[in-house]
Amino acid sequence: MKNNVSLTSFGAAQTVTGSKHLLRTPELTILIDCGLFQGIKELRLKNWQPPEVNPAEVDVVIITHAHLDHCGYLPLFVKNGFRGRILMTPPTAELAAIILKDSAEIQEEDAEKVNKYGYSKHAIAKPLYTVKDAERAIAQFETVEHSVSVQLSDNVDVVFRKNGHILGACSACLSVYGKSIVFSGDIGRYDSDLLLPPSHIGDADFVVMESTYGARLHQEEDVFECLAKIINKTIWKGGTVLIPCFAVGRAQELMHAINQLKQESRIPHHLPVFLDSPMAAEATDVLSRYPHWHKLTAEQCKRVCHEVIINKDWHGTEKIMNDKGPKIILSASGMLSGGRILEYVKHYAPHTHHTILLVGYQAEGTRGRALQNGSRILKIHGKSVQVNARVETISSLSAHADQSELIKWLDTAFSRKPEKIFLVHGDHDAQQVLKNKLIEERGMDVYIPQQNEEIKLFSTE
Ligand SMILES: [Zn+2]
Hints:
The protein is α/β, with parallel strands linked by helices and 461 residues long. The protein folds into two domains: 4-216 and 399-459, Ribonuclease Z/Hydroxyacylglutathione hydrolase-like (Metallo-beta-lactamase, Chain A, 4-Layer Sandwich); 223-397, Rossmann fold. It has 14 helices and 22 strands. The radius of gyration is 22 Å and the shape is globular. The structure holds zinc ion.
């Protein structure tokens, strides 16, 4: 209907990746987030299918943060005909540019490798998109500071409010014909050492809310203590601590924590820390350019940026692996789904004196989730790799709010109870648990959208 405002989730509906939420209004068609599906093959294959909405029909794309499952589909969306505005905060724009180029490079590299070693069933493997496609999308980016309202049309405007997830991450708060519709984005933590807590938003009629950890509470643990224990235990045995982590967000928080531990002499000062990712140096520099977006002082920022050894090329990766001494290696991807980390896992996982430390969310179907579930054989590049190294998890280092923090966000970000909550970006079971809790304890009206289901929010008549 022409006068309806409706919501359709083309991704991150009863799953945690592929965020794409379409808001149809009489004036504009707006896509909130344009993310890649990640994890199990069935999901990843969806990235290759034509988009459910014709990109040329969309007027505006709003990106909540720079993670691939929220912005990683942009190059294809633009390639397939999207010519409108792409709005995001300044740090998100810088990080997304780095991440999209890196993602394209990894896909080109992986396709090249598959073709070279012939471990694909397909005749010729192709990248999902190329660096050129990514650059074309990046050229369309338009930045908006947080808390600054942007009029998108006569009756639609948007304002970004920080949500504490990663640098630059925000909720997108839209005002549509007088109704307030808030897209939470990924909600972060209230007690991060690096990032500011989620901001107050005000009133909301509709809240489209993530629910990744809707059924889980992060362990009450002293992160620094756990980290020091794991590092010391491993290096006393002469081992390496391998931390799969995304080079944006987690990496900087970990680097800061490791620096603090060194400063406090809780781990050896001389212990080498490598950050092996082509985009790590750039991503870390972004931190120092946006001091009002985080808690670190200029001095702490400098240390985070300069006290790790940053490696960018494959040659350097081999050199790090040939070095026999104890060390810490941070490398992407965080869920072991691709990238440089796989070379390290092949090298270190078979030996008992090393440790693989998992710190972020591990989506279903990823090698990271398999490890977390106790699997001791990983399939990498067509071969089985035996895992004899210790596998540890520090869940409280997660960039995602847990169940109690999600509820805290609803309780504190809004001045009154929202009319309706739509839970997205979560596995079905986690969503059911959170839904029941919100209904029972807060008396809220909660709905879990299905993928591609068009939901009428209200009529403008
Ligand atoms: Zn995220």
